[in-house]
Amino acid sequence: MKPDVQRDLIPRDEVLQLIGVLNAMKNKARSAAQQWELLDENGHVPATPSYTALLQHATGAQDLSREVLRLTADFARSPRHTNRAGSSVLKHLSVAATMSSHAVPHFAETAEHALALLRSANPVDRGYLTNQMVLNHATGRAYLRNTSQSLRNTAVELGGHLDVQRFFAKLTRQEGPPAPPPPGPGGRHR
Predict the structure, then answer these.
(1) Confidence (pLDDT) at 178
(2) Cα distances (Å, whole numbers) of residue 174 to 59, 97, 160
(3) DSSP the chain
């Protein structure tokens, strides 16, 4: 293998570890987007939405966002981000970091509107707050789905990097030292 190609490869163990971390984060974001619900089983906003439960959605989104941001920052600080594969990985991670960061304020605003809804008696205000809660919560969940997708794309990119490594390893084995000649008629080498 050429030295400049070797330099561009991220070590296999490092790639496998990163893929494991990415898959765990991806599953966490996807699960939150699926499980965190605002509407009841009939598709309506509860008359008294739980401020505490909705605030927990914001807290969970913030924890996930912090994990994604930390992973992105760690990768950006590593020398790995300067090669072609690393640059592509960093691009996907930065999208995931942005998406996860955008989810947090939408969940926080959902909780804020729920608290205001509990204190409001005006039907017009209640209708506005209810609509804003639905819109913000749905947007927060969409950002979590986009986060999950970006993390999946990062893992796929790294999987492709492993394929390149396997290809070069196979190529290197083929370019290895020549095999000894087959034995002569008496079982001896010539």
Answers:
(1) 56
(2) 53, 41, 21
(3) --HHHHHHPPPHHHHHHHHHHHHHHHHHHHHHHHH---S-TTS---SS--HHHHHHHHHHHHHHHHHHHHHHHHHHHSGGGGSHHHHHHHHHHHHHHHHHHHHHHHHHHHHHHHHHHHH---HHHHHHHHHHHHHHHHHHHHHHHHHHHHHHHHHHHHHHHHHHHHHHHHHHHHTSSPPPPPP-TTS---
Report the pLDDT value the prediction gives residue 1, as an integer from 0 to 100.
43
Q: How far apart are CA 26 and CA 154, in angstroms?
A: 10
pLDDT digits (tens, 9 = 90+) for 68-85: 999 999 999 987 766 777
- Amino acid residing at 35: Q
pLDDT at residue 124, rounded to an integer: 96
Q: What is the mean pLDDT of residues 46-54?
A: 92
- Full-model pTM: 0.83
Paired tokens of 79? 């020398």
Q: Which residue has the tokens 């209708």?
A: 127
The SS3 call for residue 183 is: coil
